[in-house]
Amino acid sequence: MNIQTQSKPQATLDDVLTDKSEYKYGFTTDVDSDIFRKGLDEDVIRALSEKKNEPKFMLDFRLKAYKKWLTMKSPTWPHVHYPPIDFQGISYYAAPKPKKKLESLDEVDPEILRTFDKLGIPLDEQKRLSNVAVDAVFDSVSVATTHKKKLMEHGIIFCSISEAVHEYPELVEEYLGSVVPIGDNFYAALNSAVFTDGSFVYIPPDTISPMELSTYFRINTEETGQFERTLIICAENSYVSYLEGCTAPQFDTNQLHAAVVELVTLDNAEIKYSTVQNWYAGDRETGKGGIYNFVTKRGKCLGKKSKISWTQVETGSAITWKYPSCILQGDQSVGEFYSVALTNGLMQADTGTKMIHIGKDTKSSIISKGISADKSSNAYRGLVKVNKGASNARNYSQCDSMLVGDQCSAHTFPYIESANSSANLEHEASTSKISEDQLFYFQSRGISRENAISAVINGFCKEVFKQLPMEFAVEAEKLLTLKLEDSVG
Amino acid sequence: MAGALTDEVKSAEGGFLQLHKDYLDANSLSNDLLEFNKAGIERFESLKFPHPKHEMFTFVNTREIASTEFALNPGGTCSADVVKNHVYACSEQSCLVLVDGVYQPELSDLSALAGKVELADFEKAFSDEKLKQSLVESLKKETDVFSALNAAFAKQGVFLKVLPKAQINKPIQVLLVSTGAEGKPAMSAPRFCVHIGKHAEVKIIVKTVGDGNSYFSNTVQDYFLDENSSVIFSQVQADSKESWNFSKTFVRLNQYSRFKSTHAMAGSKLTRNNYQTHLCEPGAELTMNGVSVLVDKEQVHQYIQVNHHAPNCISHQYFKNIVNDKSRASFDGTVVVDPGAQLTQSDQLINNLMLSDEAHADGKPNLMIYADDVKCAHGNTVGQIDDEQLFYLETRGLSASVAKTLLTTSFARSIIDTVEFPEVVEDLKSLLLSKLERNHA
Question: Is residue A425 a part of any domain in this protein?
């Protein structure tokens, strides 16, 4: 697939050949966006809510969050540096022009379909070839949902959150904000006030989702912050695996992405949430452009023996600030976090997890692999907290960092707090570089240095990759190799 | 609520500022010392009293300090008996006694150190313009507000210089006695500085004891190790249960110097130690071990920074805490490897043994690494007595309580046994291990 020449017809062949690791998905799509004026105040929120034709409880929710947000300050504790964000310089709503309800993919704007094609996820093909339902969020408004019928047969609800607000208001009202309260943090409050769209999943009791659910996010319009909101509820004895993948076009103005993801599992239920994130990280030399990825992801194991498992592969964004967490409230519930975070160029990542043990006999495990290259900074920040009543809590954490080059940095900031004598907590971390001995061995067997590095890196991340669904694992491995091409030499 | 907390912090600041005015009125200080004290209070004002979410005080609740009114320490004395009880036999002729931060020549005995060290009091030390300037300058970079507070009130500490190539076999003991005054708890600001010359080898024991009930002791100790010097160090904390103890220990290591320390803490109402260590030149080696055994409502909070500034340095940290009843222990340690500090080796291990559901054990072992060719690792565990080990001992005929005592004491002994001074080991047995026996009886 010759993406570069498609997206930049003016580029010569030389450009393409010499600049191979430049952002692969750097193109924009020409679609008219319906954009709000820049700035945020109560009127904008009212207009947003009205535009989306929302019931009153949603407007109240938004306004309450906005009032809370006004009293809050942007967090300064993460180990990242960026100029202050002008929240009044952002337009809080952008949508492709509203279309009539679509019956088939043919009615979707061909320009949008072409975009997905470039991303390698042609909807029709996926529909036919893979067993994946795609709720494609294109610049904040869902444009196509496939496999919906099949899911409905199982009683599974998979739709955009704006649809859910109308169709299933009682579920939304009960669970929205129940895991990430509106005032949880600065960016979560902002998201609660202005979120435009996102996914909603409800798995009824005793149901195993027949397919992996997936959403492709894509930021399109310049200077439009994207505020996604995802809510997944998995009822008793059910299971769902959800995939999230991100790519974004190349721009010179920093774009803010402040998403909120909430997961709820009831008794015996399990949610597996996987992410591959590859947003534009800004210019490699100057750091200009690039996405600010300030995301609040949290799951609540509400029921007994329930389980939430987060897997993430973070390879993009200028700044990543993200802590997918688990609140282990139900007895015997399980939380898992598997992460690979790769930073290169001037990227900054401060990511990790929080495991809050509340119920009895709860278990959590954390495997985090950080790779920093060039002049980037990569930090793991995690909290393991055992409350007084959480008897027999068990945690195992492992955070390994790998440094590629002597200009980058790797940090580990684990917080371990125990208030129960029967808790068993273990944390270990190590930092190292790719060993010359390993590379020499590979090379002595005729494997090029580049392939050897790729093999070592992929081996370093293997524990995490094996948690990913097949197609994601393949994509993730390729991404890592692609990203490190210019960093090691 | 946020408003109430801010008010509390403000009133704490105001309290200390007023206390400083009283201090200036009550003492006629030399101009040199006055300059230093003023720099201290200015730094205190700009750093501000820590609010509850201050990153350096994550696990330390300073509310009680904020809401307590302190009195100026009149600079008390203590009886020779107290000194006799706490000076180890090995250091009888090499001991320095400070009571409430004031050096007591008549209680000290330095006869074994003749010709090997030079001792100066504050007045004398501050007449050295260069030294005074470097101290005032370093205050401007001070990050610990309590260390700045110490500088504001320090008046009669000591400077000890170990002469180059000196080999001192007898350990030098620094005994810090705090006396509790009547009425409001008194605040003292003990301060001493040890400069170890090139190729010198010295052993140091610092013991803090309380001769009174309620007091606030806010200590600063500095150790400067010149090229190829070596320090073997032991710290024993045996303060009154009702006391507040804050301390900052600064260690600077030059080329091929070695600092090996063991910090044994018996805890108090609130004990916080801040260790700032800097490995400044290649080949320096730092080893820090620590053990705390806490019961009732005792607290010990360790805040450690190990800064690797130069290549080829080694640092080890190994800390163990046993918490029972409603006690709290925390460890907040950071290893920073600067750009260019290649071939650094650093490890850090914290083990916590929790014996009660009311107790707290918190940890925050951080790594900040800016160089690629390094080996850094850290580990942190929280757990309880292993049932299988307990069962094994019971099958051998030991009662459950004896078995528990055996397991918990051996947990602490692994650190205590690293202390090189037999007298100190014996002291720690009665100070720390007896607490465990009492608990399981």
Answer: no
Domain ranges of chain B: 2-281, 385-441
Report the alpha-carbon distance of residue A269 to residue B204 in Å, rounded. Answer: 60
pLDDT recorded at residue A38: 80
What residue of A is the nearest CA neighbor of B334?
A413
Asked whether the ipTM of the predicted complex exceeds the cut of 0.90, the reply is no
Place of tokens 């979120």: A195
Q: Return the residue matching tokens 């009153």.
A: A56
Q: Which of B367, B374, B376, B388 would best serve as a mutation to test chain A binding (most A beta carbons within 10 A)?
A: B367
- All residues of chain B having their beta carbon less than 8 Å from the beta carbon of residue A419 are 357, 359-360
Number of domains in chain A: 1
CA angle B52–B337–B224, rounded 5-degree value: 85
Which candidate, B329, B369, B363, places its Cα nearest to that of B349?
B363
User: How close B121 comes to chain A (CA, Å)?
Assistant: 41
pLDDT tens digits for A276-332?
887 778 777 777 778 888 999 999 999 999 999 999 988 888 899 999 999 999 999
Between CA B225 and CA B229, with CA B227 as vertex, the angle to 5 degrees is 60
Q: Which amino acid is present at A113?
A: L
Q: What angle do CA B335, B338, B342 make, to 5 degrees?
A: 100
* Whole-angstrom distance, CA of residue A189 vs CA of residue A265: 23
Question: What average pLDDT does chain A have?
Answer: 79
pLDDT over 70 (residue A174): yes
Model pTM score: 0.84
**pLDDT at residue number B4:** 54
- Please give the DSSP secondary-structure letter assigned to residue A226: B
- Report residue B129 as tokens: 């313009």
Among B365, B370, B382, select the one facing A425 at the smallest CB separation. Answer: B382
Asked if the Cβ–Cβ distance from B363 to A416 is below 8 Å, we say yes
**Residue-by-residue DSSP string for B332-395:** EEEEEE-TT-TT-EEEEEEEEEE--TT-EEEEEEEEEE--SS-EEEEEEEEE---HHHHHHHHH
Rounded Cα distance between A139 and A220, Å, is 6
